[in-house]
Amino acid sequence: MSNLSIPVILGTARPGRESADVAAVVLDAIKQRGTATELIDVADYPISGTEDPDEAARLGRYKELIDSADGLVIVVPEYNHGYPGELKLLLDSAYEEYNHKPLGVVSVSSGMIGGARVTEQLQLVSLALEMIPVEPTVHVRTVKEALDDNGGFEEEGLEGALASMLDKVTWYASVMAPARRARNQEPD
């Protein structure tokens, strides 16, 4: 049993989002490792771009979740060669809370490369947030074909890629968590 926390961010609020099914697989895989996790759904954090007190309270909760996390996994669809705007707004609502934490990416796309472009973009954003993007990444091409009836991956290679990615996220999280905690306790 690990004492790490690795939440999963579902990166789209679009109605009918199939990536929610993939996020459920990822959550289950993290739980099976004995690691604490929860779903952070961008739909729960609508950002209008204005200084609304209700928005500040919602984002305060998001920042608390990210601050207490030891690593993150983002499940994100690729829309028009990029990632959803609501994910970008949410990611940009915090900064220090992400620092020195590993990030795994699971992309979802109906295209042949399964969201590789969105993964590359999120890796660049994660570096700007001082995160540690890990390889391998997981690319789900067609959700209906990738998942089995039991809520797991059926498509060849996806389960192994997810396990390998989670191994890396967990390893970096376990190494970086004590260092971050010690650094946060240092006097200014």
Mean pLDDT: 90
CATH topology-level name: Rossmann fold
CATH superfamily annotation: Flavodoxin domain
Q: Mind telling me the C-alpha Rg?
A: 16 Å
**What is the CATH class designation?**
Alpha Beta
Q: Termini, distance in Å?
A: 34 Å
Give the strand content.
5-15%
Short structural summary:
The protein has 6 helices and 6 strands.
SSE arrangement:
Layout: E1 8-10, H1 19-32, E2 39-41, H2 53-68, E3 72-77, H3 85-91, E4 102-108, H4 116-128, E5 132-133, E6 138-140, H5 143-146, H6 158-185
Parallel strand pairs: 1-2, 1-3, 3-4, 4-5, 4-6
Describe it for me?
This protein has 188 residues and is of the alpha/beta class. The chain has one domain (8-183): Rossmann fold. It has 6 helices and 6 strands, in the order βαβαβαβαββαα. The protein has helices spanning 19-32, 53-68, 85-91, 116-128, 143-146, 158-185; strands at residues 8-10, 39-41, 72-77, 102-108, 132-133, 138-140. The longest helix has 28 residues, at 158-185. The N and C termini lie far apart (34 Å).
Question: Notable features of this structure?
Answer:
single chain; 188 residues; alpha/beta; Rossmann fold; six-stranded parallel sheet; 6 helices; 13% strand
